[in-house]
Task: structure prediction
Amino acid sequence: MPIVTDSSVILGLAYVDEQADYAQQVLDAIVVQGAVVPTLFWFEVRNALLTGERRGRITTDQTSAFLDDLGQLRFEVDSDPRDRDVLDFARAHQLTVYDASYLELAHRRRAPLATVDRAIIRAAKAIGVVVWNG
Result:
């Protein structure tokens, strides 16, 4: 079963000071099981990498190589969220709509959710979404 992974986990692979061990475990799982992500995932990843460049954390070459490596993985992009559920989850759990989209996807697909975001973890547990832990 593919796992839902948010950008916070994947970025742990680009920035080794951010939960790199967990991110590597998720990467290994994606290689075997695949992942499913909402459409905004790729925009979030690219934006965070660009921000990293601007702050001097990574270079443009590192960004390009990282995106090339990610492109080799099995990511299914789900572009059909249930709008009402996304908004309900965001409201009920004080999440951004962006974060709630990952939660909604995992809930709808009955898939484990890989994240390091504490607010998303709390919300996932509250609605019965399994938080991936390896």
Q: What stands out?
A: The chain has one domain: 3-127. The longest strand covers residues 35-38. Residues 112 and 130 are 5 Å apart (CA to CA). The domain at 3-127 is CATH 3.40.50.1010 (Rossmann fold).
